[in-house]
Amino acid sequence: MNIEQLLNSEKFKRLVRTKWTFSFIMLAILFFIYYGYVFTIALNKQLVAQKVGQYTTVGILMGVLVVVGAWLLTVIYVIWANTKYDKIVDELKSELK
Amino acid sequence: MNTSVGKPNIIAIVFFILVVILTLVITYFAARKTKTTSEFYAAGRSVSGFQNGLALAGDYMSAASFLGISGLVALKGYDGMIYAVGWLVGWPALMFLIAEPLRNLGKYTFADVVAFRLRQGPIRIAAAIGGLLVVLCYTIAQMVGSGKLIQLMFGMPYELAEIIVGFVMLLYVLFGGMLATTWVQIIKAVLLLLGVTVLTILTLAKFGFNPGVLYGEVQKMYGEAMLNPGGLITTPLDSFSLGLALMFGLLGLPHILMRFYTVPDAKEARKSVVYATTFIGYFYLIIPIVGFGAAVLVGKDLITQIGKGGNMAAPLLAELLGGKAFLGFIAAVAFATILAVVAGLTLAAASALSHDIYVSVFKKGKATESEQVKVARISTVIFGVTAVLLGILFKGQNVAFLVGLAFAIAASANFPALFLSIVWKKFTTAGAVWSILAGGISATILIILSPTVWVKVLHNPQPIFPLKNPAVVSMSLAFIVAIIASLMTPDKEAEKKFEEEKVRTYLGVGAE
């Protein structure tokens, strides 16, 4: 395959589509987690002030969960990219001769 | 407690000199390897994902994060923690949207990506201006903060502190280029993570290694309000806008973006984001413990007595728990942090001046290797001296808003153009130029009219623009202007090139 054929191949088009679909789903989850946290603070201060355990509050727990959640999303993306995305990239590259 | 913070302290100075010598030795070895442009700007693309992750974390964890957030938590409690969380969320977004295409398309600066299929001249100038504005705002804030900090910590005159920072930073960048700057960042990131970890462990040891007991003490001393959100998040729209600036601002910070060219390929670029997110996430998780610990053990009174903004909370806690030697170590780490961040910023500014403007615009890309490196070094000196002068000029000013401005401009001027050039086929030269201008100018004007500057700095009673951070307006404006201007000036040539560049964007074929 030459470059033009490759770019027009269904496989390549699917790769590009999948990449952005995956990226935007992950971004949407990130938005949901972060703005969920921020808007809860803005709109429901009582809930945030509630205690879990003796002194730790819901707010402190939520803050920790957002940081851990954001980190997990990054890790999930890389696992996906390194196994699924890169595999197809390598296949396409080897077809390009 | 009796404190030696604010007085010249032999142990602190010895530690400080040790750190500077250590990093200069590395610069010396890096310098012998730095001869070509690729080595000067991109460390010869020889940095591994793990190393780059540490360096990215080093670039991002400035003294403002370390001292500022721990101080904010010590004085304001939970609000400081909300702030810390916000600083992390840009990293996943950076990964999902631009890390790989950026690495595959660019050479030295993010303007390479924007200009890839469009007309070089206008794009380079506009992108360089956007980049320089961001770097300049960020640098002034760092320089003023560092001067104040060193004055407080060592009792050294402000001006002398600025000159020392400028001089040592120039040594790193001039002789070692990106390779030395990367290693300085790595060492600093390790020292910072180590220092804050030790500080956290020493703090928790006082509370039986149970954060709950620490929160209990906070509540007993200062009341429940310290553990609950206060005035930081008031209206949803305001917090939405600030969140956008923090999240997408990261995706437009030139000194962060240029780190992606130091790794060999997209795979290493991805790894470096995971490592960076891990280190930064860990840092922001433990820094509130340091802040709460300082509030309980040192006490708010002493913290505000030493420095109004609370910036000395962490060093004071270090002295209380680990004595003068540990204070010296933390002081040296804080100093190294400033040096390293300013060095990274200077390198980003120098690459915009020399690579984007001089080589690409004036010389149309036709400059010899040695000429390019020479121009890069001259640009470095010019920017370094400017930074020191501006630092001295802004002495005593409240410059906290400059960091907000830097993020707002980065999110509005740089990010939309960069992102659209990667994903949108119909993006044109006019679209990019107008988008950068609209985003940059509207962000600047709106922040001047916002409560942050109009009320707090200029002391007017009412803000003209209601939001503390304008990103929601200025970033949307940049996208709208980009789309309208592009649709009005269709460019078949650029669309054709967009199709061709896909093989590079997605497969990395032909990437340097």
Automatic annotation (TrEMBL), chain A:
It comes from the Bacteria. It holds the Pfam family DUF485. GO terms for cellular component: plasma membrane. The keyword Transmembrane helix applies. The chain crosses the membrane at residues 20-43, 55-80. Keywords: Membrane, Transmembrane, Transmembrane helix. This is DUF485 domain-containing protein.
From TrEMBL, chain B:
It is found in: Cell membrane. InterPro entries: Na/Glc_symporter_sf, Na/solute_symporter, Na/solute_symporter_CS, Sodium:Solute_Symporter. Its main location: membrane. GO terms for molecular function: acetate transmembrane transporter activity; symporter activity. GO terms for biological process: monoatomic ion transport; plasma membrane acetate transport. GO terms for cellular component: plasma membrane. It comes from the Bacteria. Keywords: Cell membrane, Ion transport, Membrane, Sodium, Symport, Transmembrane, Transmembrane helix, Transport. It is a multi-pass membrane protein. Pfam families: SSF. The chain crosses the membrane at residues 12-31, 52-75, 81-102, 123-143, 163-183, 190-209, 240-261, 273-298, 325-354, 375-394, 400-424, 431-450, 470-488. NCBIfam families: sss. Belongs to the sodium:solute symporter (SSF) (TC 2.A.21) family. This is Sodium/solute symporter. It comes from Deferribacter autotrophicus.
